[in-house]
Specification:
This protein is mostly helical. Helices cover about 75% and strands about 0% of the residues. It has 15 helices and no strands.
């Protein structure tokens, strides 16, 4: 039975059960509940488990070291769902205590399965929102990594921070402007579009793009930005027409 096939009260009871059983595992160095919930086929059961892990970590200081030891141990699991859940749990912790879990993301970036790697991207997004300084410093080191997929994943991961604080990620994105890999370039253009349509962001993005050397790339990004204002017109900070006028006035071709 899936999480959302349960009644609201049953979901609450299950969540409380997951919390209790995980805390007992962490306290006594067991893996029974951790593996049961981390490998569950239902996404929302796994989510309940990694959210619970983050809450227990900050609620019980005495268990923090044990929790980190357990998560690192299950990160070696052959089940990609378990590894994915461990990284997501580390992401919950990293929103306040990134230094304690940085090594999870150093490892997860190179996981053989896409799901744990996607968990790294998702975690970087949420950690970058709540705890940007150490997360952006960490991300910067990977934007010049020889593995193109690592560069692409980090570019994607810092996007969410850029939607509210574009000035924090534009210097990082700029380092990718001459990247020769099509997938990295496509992600870079996508991220620029995704941050530019948010309130107060267009002016910051355009002013920064004017300082980039790769005008073919910035022209492509501007086309994407204009298109985004139409695709997300119900959420955009201005109409596409207003965005076109602003860009026409301020973007230096």
């Amino acid at each position: 039975m899936s999480f959302y096939s349960l009644s609201p009260n049953e979901r609450k009871q299950l969540t409380e059960k997951i919390n209790r059983e995980l805390e007992l595992d962490f306290r006594f160095g067991k893996l029974d509940a951790v593996l049961q919930y981390f490998e569950d086929e239902d996404t929302y059961v796994r989510k309940s488990a990694y959210l619970a892990t983050g809450k227990i970590y900050f609620r019980s200081k005495a268990l923090q070291k044990k929790i980190l030891t357990t998560l690192w141990k299950v990160l070696e699991s052959k089940d990609f769902r378990v590894r994915q859940s461990a990284i997501n749990a580390a992401g919950e912790i990293g929103m306040q205590d990134f230094e304690a879990v940085q090594h999870f993301f150093d490892k997860g970036l190179f996981d053989a399965h896409h799901s744990p790697r996607n968990a790294v991207i998702g975690s970087v997004k949420k950690m970058g929102q709540k705890n940007p300084r150490p997360v952006m410093k960490w991300a910067k080191n990977y934007l010049k990594h020889p593995d193109k997929e690592v560069r692409r994943e980090i570019c994607h991961g810092i996007e969410l921070r850029g939607r509210t604080h574009p000035q924090d990620i534009l210097p990082l994105l700029k380092t990718l402007q001459h990247d020769k890999t099509a997938r990295v370039r496509k992600t870079l253009v996508h991220v620029l579009g995704q941050i530019a349509y948010k309130k107060g962001c267009l002016a910051t993005v355009i002013a920064d793009l004017n300082k980039w050397e790769n005008k073919a790339l910035t022209d492509e990004a501007v086309d994407e930005i204009i298109d985004v204002f139409e695709r997300y017109k119900n959420f955009a900070s201005m109409s596409q027409e207003e965005a076109i006028r602003y860009i026409g006035k301020h973007y230096h071709k």
